[in-house]
Each structure stands twice: as structure tokens, then as C-alpha cells.
Amino acid sequence: MTIPGGLDDQTIHLSWGLISNSPFTISDPNLNSFHVYRTIFEHLLNPLLANQPLSTLILSIGLSVFGPNFYFIISLVSVGLTFLFARLLLKKYRYSFLWALIFTFSSYMWSHLWKHIDLLQIWIFPLFFIIFRQFFTINSLKNAVKLAVFFTVSTLISNYAGFMSLIYFLIACTVNLFYKWYSEKKFDFLLLRNTVLTVLIFACLLVITLFPYIKANYLGYKQVGRTVARTYEDFFSFSSRPWYFLLPPVKNPMLGGFSVNILERIKRTDYFLADDYFANEHQGNFFGIVFLLVSSLVLLWSYKNSVETRKNITIYIVCNLILFILMFPPFFTIGGMQIYTPGYLLYKYFPMFRVSSRFSVILLLNLVTITAYVVNENYEKLKSNLKYLNLIIICLTIITLIETFIPFELVKKDIPPTVYSYLNKNTPENTMFAVYPNNSTLDAMYWIYSHKRFLINPKYYSSESMVSEEFTENLNTEEGLDKLLELNGEYLIVFKNVSEEDKEIFENNSKIKLVNEFDDSYLFKVEKI
């Protein structure tokens, strides 16, 4: 099959589509009996026990029935829904089609396309804005319940989408409360009541709907699935930096080289926050230089010249500023002094959401929405001052789409590596093996349907006895090979992309014996002591 973008975090789902021919089961009884496979595929075997049960249920059934291509079909459907709801949100504004294009085909979308199906559910955000707008227009109990239900469903589809929507909801309500109190000297108790009710109803619904997951992972005698502990360092590595918003994606064919050079210069400063650029996440912080410049100028001009738009501009910008500083790492240093940021609150109270840079998608939608609103409200004034306004907006859209584009390659995965075919034909069904180095573990997991043997160290796997990544990294040591023996490993596959030093270590170790050499790998037999 052809895999857009190549193997990445979606490999578990693609592999599931190849080894499961009916819902909630691994079709091969032998593979189904292996505890490692039952662990890494736990969320697909029992989707209602997953932390995103709704999207996991759809994926589990769809992949089993339609095969791995279902993953890519759902990805395209998600992009289509994003454009549909963005257009619906902006339909009352001029150029809604173009504004929707800018939001839909953002660098955030390209960063997660084909890789993270839950993070690709970007349509949730414009739909949230639509429902949120109703909440403010008619501040009723009915709309509070509707919004709470929306938060619940969103969280069941994508934990991050639900969480980020909730955080923005709390920020926007707080800003509106303070703005009304400051400008009108009135406190909106009705808004406060409905805000609190929304949060309480959402919390109750979430506990009820996620109770199977909570029970399985926190109330039972053991955890299931792929529960991962987040470290404090993660909140520095995966948070944002101000300069990320000004650097085009490093993989952009036209501007990527510029960003690489700038990032290298920043890195050479040796500042502890200067070397954490992670392309798969931080590329999504870029909205387009031209779009940022034009939208900023339009908002500034409108704020000065249009009293009618001043309130909305103020509220939107304040909300964006608060969200912006939440994306920063827990602290930074100046002259050796630690200065804590609001990002520390995310670590302290929401440690399960480490990638605060993902808030950028709401920042973008907010900026697109307020820009569309201002252009629409001041259309006649702008048109009288700008003769070719239509052409300017069209050019703005085209340039922005070019700036934010991140290409992907099409990778063919039709013929398995020879070593896996050999393993399938020349070893018993319950043969246990490991692969080395770490960058081969994803590939080995994808080819489970081909080798049909027990892979000890698939990526993401962890248990009380081993963590896959650490185990794989240590396989070139005596302790690592002892661990392989302890886990009843019978074979070790070493791919030839390792260093010459590693090759010598494996070739000269008495605990393993070379069985066969292939074009891209070596197959070693583990010698039982």
C-alpha cells in the first residue's frame, strides 16, 4: 500500500487494519495470544476503555472492516469538515470562502495530516465558536447545557480539542465579565452562573462517559493500554516560543531553509530554551508572515477608525494574548533569575496536556475570525481606500497557503523486508524476537501481518519489566542482551543502518550467533545459556 507521509505515530492504526478482519479482535489466534500485542492494541480491542472512546471506536471498527486505507479516508473527511464548519462560522462575512481556506489549510493541519487522527479533528474548533456565539447571544440554561454536551463529545473524540476549547471558553468568559464590569460598571451574574453551570455539567458528563477508562486505568488492579507519564521537561520541550510564530515550517519548500538557518543561530546562543524546536509540533505555530502583518494592520486601523468594532477587537485580542502566554514554558530565566509564566499552571493542574503549543490552532481561528469581522464591518471604507481590495484578499490567501504549506512524501510499503519473510517461513509461530535500532521498531510493528511472530519491542510498548525505547537502546550492551534472554527472546534483527561500532559489538558477542545476512539486515540467534 501507499502511505502518505510514511510511517509515523499512525503505525499502530495501520497495523491494526492489517491484522484485524473483524471488530475488536486480532484475527490470527496466535498473534492474539501475545500479551505485548494485546497491550499495544488494547485501545482498539476495547475502545470503550480508551481515553478517546468515540474516535477510537470509529477507528477500530472502520480499520477492521475497510482496512488501513480507512485511516487516510477519515483524514480527508476531517479536513473537509474543517472547511465546512469554518465556512459556516464565517458565512456572514465577505470573503468567507477565502478565510475558511486560510484556516483549513494551516501549517497546524499539515503538521498532523496523516499522522494524528485525533489532532486532525480541527473542525471541532469552528463548531465550538458557532455554539459559543449562541451561548453569548442568548445567555440561557439551554445553551449552557448544549455547550457542556459539546465539550463532552469533543473530549471523547479528541482530548486535546475538548481541553483547549474548555480553556478558551473560560478565558473568553472571564475577559467578557471583566470588560463589562470595567466599561459598564455592572457585573454579569447571569454569565457567571451559566459559565459555572457549563463547567459543572461538563465535569459530570465527562466522569460518567469516561468512567470505564478511569476504572480500568486508575481504579483497577492494573493499568491497561498505553498510559504514559509526562515529565516536567516535556512542558519545556513541547511548549511554544515567540519566534516560532515568525518562522515558516522547516519543511516548507520555499522558506524552510531560512527557518533552519535562524534556528541554528538561536541554538548557538546556548540558552536552555533555544534548542527545543520539534518540527512535527512547532511548525503549526506559524500562521504566515503576510497574514500576520495584514491582519495586524487591519485590526490596528479599525481600532483607531471604527468605534463599532473596538469592543470586539479588544475582547478578541485580550483572549488571544492570554492564550498566547499560556503556550510558553513553565518558566524562563533572565540573568539567572527564574521568571514563572502562566504555562506553569498547565503543568501544575493539567499535567496530562504537555503540548501547550497546540493552542495555536485556536489563536489562528480567533485571528481569522476577528480579521474577517473587521474587514466585513469596514468593507465600504476599505474599498474606498483600496481600489483592488478583492485582488488583495485573493493574493493574501494564495501567499498564506504557500507560506504555510508542508509537503509530504508518498511511501510505498508493498514488499516486506526479506528478513521478515525468512522469519515467517523458517521459525515456529510463537517465536519471540527483537529489532535494533530504535528507528526500526515502527517498521517491525507495521509488518506484523507479514512476519506473524512475537515482536518484543514495538515502539510505544511499556510494562513493569521493560520500556521498549530504553530496552532497544541497550541491546548493543551486555546488559541489554541479558534482558533479551530474560524476556525469552530467540532472535535479534539488526538493521544495517547502525554504526560500524555497533556492528562489531553484535558480530563479536558470544551471546548471539549470526544466522543469515540480508540486503538491509542481519539475523542473529540468541544463544541460550
TrEMBL record:
Can you tell which superkingdom this protein's organism belongs to? Bacteria
Q: Does the keyword Translocase apply?
A: no
**Signal peptide bounds:** none
- The UniProt transmembrane annotation reads 70-90, 97-114, 120-136, 143-160, 194-214, 286-303, 315-339, 359-376, 388-408
Q: Which UniProt keywords apply?
A: Membrane, Transmembrane, Transmembrane helix
Q: What is the protein's name according to its record?
A: Glycosyltransferase RgtA/B/C/D-like domain-containing protein
According to its UniProt entry, this protein's organism is candidate division WWE3 bacterium RBG_16_37_10
